[in-house]
Automatic annotation (TrEMBL), chains A, B:
PANTHER family named among the record's database cross-references: 4-NITROPHENYLPHOSPHATASE-RELATED (PTHR19288), PHOSPHOLYSINE PHOSPHOHISTIDINE INORGANIC PYROPHOSPHATE PHOSPHATASE (PTHR19288:SF44)
Name of the protein: Phospholysine phosphohistidine inorganic pyrophosphate phosphatase
Family as reported in the entry's similarity comment: Belongs to the HAD-like hydrolase superfamily.
Organism listed in the record: Vombatus ursinus
EC number: 3.6.1.1
Gene3D superfamilies: HAD superfamily/HAD-like
One family name in Pfam for this protein: Hydrolase_like
The keyword Nucleus is assigned to this record: yes
Signal peptide: 1-23
GO MF: inorganic diphosphate phosphatase activity; metal ion binding; phosphatase activity
InterPro entries hit by this protein: HAD-like_sf, HAD-SF_hydro_IA, HAD-SF_hydro_IIA, HAD_sf, LHPP/HDHD2
Length: 300, 300
């Protein structure tokens, strides 16, 4: 009976949190799938979750800082993994960066992955007067990063445009450095500040809201990054949920969670007393906090 | 006659600045030579300058953050360029780092250039519990930097030891990213602060003073880096001179110099009203401020 009462309390709490929600903003990497060799793998339950969200009548927008692939390639990969997704459902930073470059007459040196180059096909890259940096993986060679540095250091007013500022993300064989650390490297080398396009920039979330035709208070952002996803959304008045998949780490340097002794379905977790979380995955049976599973941490 | 009076005033000013000096701490890269293909080239006049200093009876210590080569290789290169220099005249960060590793029982993952590995021959690098980072040049591949990140992020108390924190240095074909930007990248990725061994750490300058048997007020540091050389020395009570060779840049992001109209021999330059400089190179005839030449900026 105590278990039933707890479940009822949990359901009531969720009903309150979800009140007035008409749309979801969904991060992709680490929430729906983990990248890796061969393209990556869907996180168990996520293909079905996307399908259920679409059936529910909630509006849905995929909000990703993915900048290693063009949107076409990215959607192709997700479709092969079983997701119901199309290019026009995605908000990503590359098109926003192109808009900025055009408006300001900027000619970028592109420190980006080859696979995302098609997004910049229309840009003039001759005699560069700015640098665009994105998650480049192996293309973050010393030579390439140094080329970007030399472009910046040669400019009177160096402009560095960054597609996101994530610290790291998860691939199937482990954590990988994201674009953020390389942005910090160039900022330090040149004593400048980058302009961030993509999460957590407010413009990114506002663009997603426009595309959905909803107000901030009518939506929830769901992501695995406490800064880019949760923090960015909250600064725009959007509620946010952090999943325990992807880069979520119990003892992450930047994310200290204190775990109460109770665990399992319905357990609540505290995050510096600002977060509580509960298991919403029917697949989750163990309360073991160390191994990421589809588990949601609520940040209010 | 006016020129003679100016020269006399200059000489008097220098006599005052150099009062009580019994030893010199001399940076190497950018001051004595510029690195590059084939090992690099001596900066004109510097071989003779070292010889003159040694003949003068002043004590001399070569204080370098060079961490791409072992001291043996470094000295061999400088000797081939014509310098009178030996290994035991050099203060460099690798031996200091080894001392720290031994004292604290640390087993490093070495994110360093292959050529500096011999300095760490005695270290246990199995199952690493810290990262040592040095100027690694092309070895700063994404894979290598990511390996260092994974070591740090797996540790409960991540320890990152950096051999210097320079922003960039100059090789014959242009500016090159130094270790500092990569330190900032790992600091951001893991939300930690590195421990800097080498300039500008006070311990580095204090070690050099011990090795010379002199007090801080009896010495002058000469370097091309306003932060690592000049700032570091000054924090230890050592006077400092900045040369206009090496990485010195008129419009450097981190070094704004306002140039008065007067120039040439005896001209004074201001640096945020805290620096004045004067030409002490007999080879310098042009007042052109844009192209680095052997020129000293005095920072009081």
């Amino acid at each position: 009976m105590r278990a039933m009462a707890a479940a009822a309390a949990t359901a009531a709490a969720w009903a309150q949190r979800l009140a007035g929600v008409r749309g979801l903003l969904l991060d992709v990497s680490g929430v729906l799938y983990d990248g890796g060799d061969g393209g990556g793998t869907a996180i168990p339950g996520s293909v079905e979750a996307v399908a259920r969200i679409k059936q529910s009548g909630l509006k849905l927008r995929f909000c990703t800082n993915e900048s290693q692939k063009s949107r076409d390639k990215f959607v192709g990969l997700l479709q092969r993994l079983g997701f119901d997704i199309s290019v026009n459902e995605i908000t990503s930073p590359a098109p926003a960066a192109c808009q900025i470059l055009k408006e300001r007459g900027l000619r970028p040196y592109l420190l980006v992955h080859d696979d995302v180059l098609p997004e910049f096909n229309e840009m003039d890259t001759s005699n560069p007067n700015c640098v665009v940096i994105a998650d480049s993986g192996d293309s973050f060679s010393y030579q390439n990063v140094n080329k970007a540095f030399r472009v910046l250091v040669s400019l009177e007013n160096p402009v560095l445009i960054s597609l996101g500022e994530g610290r790291y993300y998860k691939e199937s064989d482990g954590l990988m450095l994201d674009v953020g650390p390389y942005v910090k490297a160039l900022e330090y080398a040149c004593d400048i500040r980058a302009e961030v396009v993509g999460k957590p920039a407010p413009e990114f979330f506002q663009a997603a809201l426009r595309e959905m035709g909803l107000e901030a208070h009518e939506t929830i952002m769901i992501g695995d990054d406490i800064v880019s996803d949760v923090g960015g959304a909250q600064r725009c008045g959007i509620r946010a949920l952090q999943v325990r998949t992807g880069k979520f780490r119990q003892n992450a340097c930047c994310l200290k969670l204190s775990m109460p002794k109770s665990s399992g379905h319905g357990a609540f977790y505290t995050h510096e007393e600002r977060c509580v979380g509960m298991d919403v995955s029917p697949r989750r049976t163990s309360g073991e906090p160390q191994s990421p599973q589809p588990f949601i941490v609520w940040t209010s």
